[in-house]
Write a structure and sequence with these properties.
alpha+beta, five-stranded antiparallel beta sheet, 17 strands, 18% helix, globular, NAGPA, signal
């Protein structure tokens, strides 16, 4: 009996593998290759900032170690918002419905303060909301991270983006569908401008709202591709959690 069960499992295994879709893929748009990771409403997307010891997770490896007792692991993850030298988030951060840091609605220096900036919210679906609209509405978010600038706002690029800008970095961010059923996380595989990155979300992915996460420290973890970008400890991290096989 056992021999027949093993044979049956081996027969079914290739078919199951063939139908499983990877969470991440590569896309070349306007001559630049991007890595894209997608989540659907109902997927276990989480923001990771505060580890059980009260300190920032800081790395993909620490998150996977914390998830292991649950029988879970990251399918993909990336840095998800700007942070101070001690890795405290610059703007709003919500973890499991608990507000770790408050929203910031004033203009300020750097990319974060280049209004309009925005909030990525994980609730029943996904939303990218301009920060002042978020502060007025206060939607229910299980997880949320504020960053800036917005890349796409209602189908339009951020008004301060320049086509001929010479500011180029490896950049990462997130865009969401109009109905909130889909979130696409993207990272460029070479230095690009804000205008180029915004066009990816607006023109290639046709997502009406998108938010910039960061540039100089952008990193991706993709278990399927065996990719885990190295670097200094991070602040907020967003990731898709899945059962460990």
């Amino acid at each position: 009996m056992r021999t027949r069960l093993v044979a049956l499992a081996l027969a079914l295994w290739p078919a199951a593998c063939a139908t499983a879709e990877p969470a991440c893929r590569d896309l070349t748009f306007e001559g630049t290759r991007y890595s894209l990771c997608e989540a659907q409403a109902g997927d276990d997307i989480r923001l990771f900032q505060t580890a059980p010891d009260g300190k920032p997770y800081g790395s993909f490896e620490r998150i996977n170690s914390a998830l292991a007792p649950e029988g879970r692991q990251l399918a993909f993850a990336m840095n998800a918002g700007m942070y101070h030298a001690d890795r405290r988030p610059v703007g709003l951060l919500v973890e499991e419905g608990f507000e770790r840091a408050p929203i910031v609605t004033s203009a300020g220096p750097g990319n974060f303060g280049m209004l309009p900036n925005g909030v990525f919210c994980v609730g029943e679906g996904y939303r990218v909301i301009e920060s002042r609209a978020f502060a007025a509405e206060r939607p229910a978010c299980r997880f949320a991270s504020q960053s800036g600038p917005m890349l796409v706002i209602g189908g339009k690029l951020h008004p301060r983006f320049l086509v001929d800008s010479d500011s180029r970095y490896v950049r990462n961010g997130v865009g969401v569908s109009a109905d909130g059923s889909r979130a696409v996380f993207a990272i460029s595989n070479r230095p690009i401008t804000f205008h180029e990155f915004g066009r990816l979300f607006r023109d290639a992915l046709e997502l009406p709202d998108a938010l910039y996460f960061d540039g100089s420290i952008s990193r991706l973890y993709d278990r399927g591709a065996r990719r885990s970008d190295w670097g200094t400890p991070m602040g907020p991290i967003v990731g898709l959690v899945v059962p460990t096989p």
